TrEMBL record:
Gene3D superfamilies in UniProt: 3.30.70.270, 3.40.1170.60, 5' to 3' exonuclease, C-terminal subdomain, 6.10.250.1630, DNA polymerase, Y-family, little finger domain
Gene Ontology CC, one term: replication fork
PANTHER family reported for this sequence: DNA POLYMERASE ETA
Reactions catalysed according to its record: DNA(n) + a 2'-deoxyribonucleoside 5'-triphosphate = DNA(n+1) + diphosphate
UmuC domain mapped to chain residues: 14-254
CDD domains: PolY_Pol_eta
Protein's name according to its UniProt entry: DNA polymerase eta
Domain of life: Eukaryota
Enzyme class, spelled out: transferase
Record's compositionally biased regions (Polar residues): 513-544
Gene Ontology annotations of biological process type: DNA repair; error-prone translesion synthesis; response to UV
UniProt cross-references to InterPro entries, sorted A to Z: DNA/RNA_pol_sf (IPR043502), DNA_pol_Y-fam_lit_finger_sf (IPR036775), DNA_pol_Y-fam_little_finger (IPR017961), DNA_polymerase_eta (IPR052230), Rev_trsase/Diguanyl_cyclase (IPR043128), UmuC (IPR001126)
Family: Belongs to the DNA polymerase type-Y family.
Length: 676
């Protein structure tokens, strides 16, 4: 019998499951002789023994910390076992850890709505399961309660020496007079304990969990008692928990907003926010952020568990600390090629296995200048539409880098003093692919494909401000900046990122730290990015949709560099008078932005586009022999047909001709070439 979903969000049961010292556990499963020994996983480079990225709880007891290098760890704990991460393309290869994380996800996903939040973290919405249990087999009716559930920590319940904790927990779970919210949490405790045991049995990995009425509280709780334990936040314990919680520890307050709350309003703990009225917070931070702050001070968060088991973006990165900092373009290009290769490989397998495509390529880098008063200047992040194919990603990534570097170095790049050339050093590079969407399966409808594209989530609701930039070898004017460096996860030494949800704020030390994309507009960001938001929305026009399908087409095979792809054809097609209506609908977007959105993504097509830009909204401008017929041919036949019918009224010159007349199937027939 279907269970009615309670109206109030505090009657939900949400769990946050976090693997314990995850990479270490993966290595210990591979080498069982390491179990129980102080162990750490280190980056592959040899500098001072490599940086530690995961530390076992045995090693933590000896004082070993993740911030240490291998040599330091050995000094603190001579018996420590250091295991190097696997290496591929001269950098860390995290595939083993990713698949290990997927094993866990596939077990947890059976229990309810499941959101993979990072390589080793999952949110579960267990409301239905808890409701069912409460209806059919409430805890007080059970003969016995699982030992693992009885070991739970219940916030607000004191644990004095000599008490029989398990008995107290049993009483709490089985209280007949408990309010419904606590009863549901009691069921959640039993369900999560069972799931954790199942994960351990099937994968050999232990994990910890937080169980609460929302994601925010569940996440806070899961880290409170580790390893291999679970913590529950009853409604009655929320205020106490938040009253002492440092503001910066709260998800999304680790960055500028948290700092500003501290300095401008003297707010040091989440509980301190309670002294301000909602109106006051809104006055200071804007309507949405003000309300959001008012809510979190009370432990209220309406953020839903997203049913998502796959990452929201893919990334590949590497850091170059100390003397390994890159100082020449050729070195940067070498590494960008490696990173792009890995990214492309992951994109291809995502396409093959999950039928998903990504549409935005972003380059992040960290840098410093050799002698510069302006050295605090952040290296700007750049994005552009993503083209599938290793060489295209490599080319685009390098172009993005060069555009960013020009901006970073300033208009001259050379400082007058001493005629010495200003030099730069790159200490971290990463490329990532985001805005990943499903290719609709089992459908031949290109319109459905387009519809799904128009729902591509925009980053604009959070801090992920991305603008497409025109990549030209020479001009950086078209480039825009991803201003908030907080959107850029801090890169660990040999870092490869997989973003399961979009970042809002960095979580210290976890490069791919994933925070939810809860639509919490941050005044500083959202207001500065309104233009971008509008632009992003305009991308849902057919032009962008067409651009995206072009990307899909390009994924299967590298096209000749000299040929404009079907993307260009589509792009130009919609710029014709016949599609003017769409153009006019987007009148809020400055024409230059539109041009940027439709910009080509190679130096060749940049030239073509310049020409296109000049003659925009006039006529088709390609020579017939420039059209790469094979691109069109790669489309599934049904889509080709639909695409033809989609274009016919406007473009097909010989509409009366039958398809069987030999040449009618050529895409060129839909685009009568004009003289240049
Ligand atoms: N990781 C990384 N670089 C970082 C932080 C983490 O490569 N700067 C990797 C190694 C970790 C994994 O991500 O094992 C998960 O990170 P967590 O922050 O969840 O930490 P652990 O799982 O290692 O430990 P804990 O038990 O404290 O969660």
């Amino acid at each position: 019998m279907p269970i009615a979903r309670p109206e109030t969000s505090d009657a939900r049961v949400i769990a946050h499951v976090d693997m314990d010292c995850f990479y270490v556990q993966v290595e210990q499963r591979r080498q069982p002789e390491l179990r129980g020994l102080p162990t750490a996983v280190v980056q592959y480079n040899e500098w001072q023994g490599g940086g530690l990225i995961a530390v076992s709880y045995e090693a933590r007891k000896c004082g070993v910390k993740r911030s240490m290098r291998g040599d330091e760890a050995k000094a603190a704990c001579p018996e420590i076992q250091l295991v190097q991460v696997p290496v591929a393309r001269g950098k860390a290869d995290l595939n083993t850890y990713r698949s290990a994380g997927s094993e866990v996800v596939s077990i947890l996903a059976q229990s309810g709505k499941c959101e993979r939040a990072s390589i080793d973290e999952v949110y579960l919405d267990l409301t239905d399961a808890a409701e069912s249990m409460l209806a059919d087999a409430p805890p007080e009716s059970l003969d016995s309660i699982d030992e693992e559930a009885l070991k739970s920590h219940i916030l607000g319940m004191s644990r004095n020496e000599g008490d029989d904790f398990k008995e107290s927990v049993r009483d709490w779970i089985c209280r007949k007079d408990a309010d419904r919210r606590d009863k549901l949490l009691g069921c959640g405790m039993i369900i999560v304990a069972e799931l954790r045991k199942q994960v351990l049995k099937e994968t050999e990995f232990s994990c910890s969990a937080g169980i609460a009425h929302n994601k925010m509280l569940a996440k806070l709780a899961s880290g409170m008692n580790k390893p291999a334990q679970q913590t529950v936040v009853p409604y009655s314990a929320v205020q106490e928990l938040l009253s002492s919680l440092p503001i910066k520890k709260m998800k999304q307050l680790g960055g500028k907003l948290g700092t500003s709350l501290q300095t401008d309003m003297g707010v040091n703990t989440v509980g301190d926010l309670l002294q301000f009225s909602e109106a006051k917070l809104q006055e200071h931070w804007g309507t949405n952020t003000g309300t959001w702050l008012w809510n979190i001070a009370r432990g209220i968060s309406g953020e839903e568990v997203q049913g998502r088991l796959l990452p929201k973006s893919h990334g590949s990165g590497k850091t170059f600390p100390g003397p390994r900092a890159l100082k020449s373009l050729s070195n940067v290009q070498h590494w960008l090629n490696q990173l792009s290769e890995e990214l492309s490989e992951r994109l291809s397998s995502d396409l093959d296995q999950n039928k998903r495509i990504a549409s935005t390529l972003t380059l992040h880098a960290s840098a410093f200048k050799s002698k510069d008063s302006d050295s605090h200047k952040k290296f700007p992040s750049k994005s552009c539409p993503l083209r599938y194919g290793v060489t295209k990603i490599q080319e685009d990534a390098f172009n993005l880098f060069q555009a960013a570097l020009r901006e970073y170095m300033g208009p001259f790049g050379i400082k007058p003093q001493g005629n010495k050339q200003e030099t730069w050093r790159i200490t971290g590079l990463s490329v990532s692919a985001s805005k990943i969407v499903d290719i609709p399966s089992g459908t031949s409808s290109i319109m459905r494909y387009f519809q799904s594209q128009s729902t591509v989530p925009s980053c604009s609701a959070d801090r992920c401000v991305q603008e497409y930039v025109e990549i030209t070898p020479s001009a950086s004017e078209g480039c825009s900046e991803q201003r908030s460096i907080e959107t850029q996860a801090a890169m660990s030494e040999e870092d490869i990122s997989t973003h399961y949800t979009e970042n809002i704020d960095p979580v210290p030390e976890k490069d791919f730290s994933c925070q939810s994309n809860e639509a919490t507009p941050f005044q500083t960001q959202s207001e500065s990015s309104k233009g971008t938001q509008r632009k992003t929305q305009s991308e849902s026009s057919k032009g962008t949709q067409m651009k995206r399908i072009g990307r899909k087409i390009n994924s299967s095979k590298e096209k000749s560099q000299g040929m404009p792809s079907i993307v260009d054809i589509f792009k130009n097609y919609i710029a014709t008078p016949q599609s003017k209506q769409e153009t006019e609908e987007d009148s809020t977007v400055p024409s230059t932005s539109k041009r940027n959105n439709f910009s080509s993504r190679s130096s060749h097509s940049s030239e073509v586009n310049q020409e296109v830009g000049e003659r925009k909204e006039t006529k088709w401008g390609y020579k017939i022999d420039e059209i790469d017929q094979s691109v069109f041919d790669e489309l599934p036949e049904e889509i080709q047909l639909e695409l033809r019918s989609f274009m016919r009224p406007n473009k097909r010159p010989n509409a009366g001709k039958s398809k069987g007349d030999g040449s009618a199937s050529s895409i060129a027939h839909y685009f009568p070439p004009l003289k240049r």
